[in-house]
Write a structure and sequence with these properties.
With about 350 residues, the chain is α/β, with parallel strands linked by helices. The chain contains 14 helices and eight strands. The chain has helices spanning about 5-15, 20-25, 50-60, 105-120, 150-165, 170-175, 175-190, 195-200, 205-225, 245-275, 280-285, 290-315, 320-325, 325-345; strands at about 1-5, 40, 70-75, 80, 80-90, 95-100, 135-140, 145-150. Strands 1, 2, 3, 4, 5, 6, 7 and 8 form an eight-stranded mixed beta sheet that branches. A hairpin with a 7-residue loop joins strand 7 (about 135-140) and strand 8. Helix 7 (about 175-190) runs parallel beside helix 10. The longest helix has about 35 residues, at about 245-275. It is elongated and about 80 Å long. About 40% of the residues are buried. The model is unreliable at about 235-240 (pLDDT under 50).
Amino acid sequence: MVADPGLPSEIARDLAPRLPEHLRRRIGRGIRWQVDTVTAPLVANEQVDVSDVAEIVGTHLEDGDWDIGVLLTDLPRRAERNPVSIEVDPEHRIALVSLPALGSRRLRRRVRQVVVGAVRQLTAQDEKPLDSSVGRPAPAEESDRERYVVPGLRGHVRLVLGMVRANRPWRLFASLSRAMAGVFATAAVGFINATTWQVATALGIPQLMLIAVLSTLALTAWIIIDHRLWERAGDLPGAHAPLYPYNLVTLLTIGLGVFFLYAALFVTLVAVSFLVVTPSVFGRIVHHAVDASDYLTLSWFVTSSSMIGGAFGTGLENAEEVRDAAYGQRHRKRQRQLTEARDRSR
């Protein structure tokens, strides 16, 4: 198995030790299976032909001591606008699996099922189509190849969610350490301000919700603009059309990362408020007896207003870590690596 860096490589390494047993059960106990994994950038654009990838595999498996190659990529692939989940090429004994088309739920299980099914086809053990959850067969340009697509709205929703899953937005949250410092510093100043207490308890739920939405959207937009993550026509290598999945996935990924930051700050402030702010002082400032809802309201308002402070910290973030959240940025980097690898092999 040759896998792109990141999530595909993690899944390949996790699957490799258990895959021989699954293959023995599905294909036959008389065959001895050995599974090796290699991490390498695989494809430069989403429309690459699976046969062309055989050349890439050869550069990483120069001894040729392998019978079947399964390639895992997190680059979305499409055929006539329909997401392609897997393409099998018996002539070159390889199968190219696109993880985003498999969705975000039970991803490792689906990858295992796809890999086992592809190996069955490549060993002529199974002439039946793969499981319907993988997609439905679609005609390829060459009759000896088998391509599976996930059509319609279901396919596009699964593609977008799969791309967000491959971006791993929870890791983006960890990389926003400087933004987190700015958010927490702003919260610390606002949290001990008596005027903040009065404003927070005077606002209603609709107003607090509006402030929360606007503040998270503002920080999300600032991160995208500051790090130039929004793709424009002509930015992406090869035939990456239409652009909507890339920008939509970037927006969702950054938005989820900001949401995790928001949730972490809110939980922290709730805990601190009950420990630090005494009910008597709090009640004297806001001119009424306070209860738990007042503490939650205060924490909610301070969290929302502090997200603006995070914008100042994001300008200091490691640009490479944040830009990995954008598909176009990440795959332009891999395209450069792929080109360099090809030049070295010549």
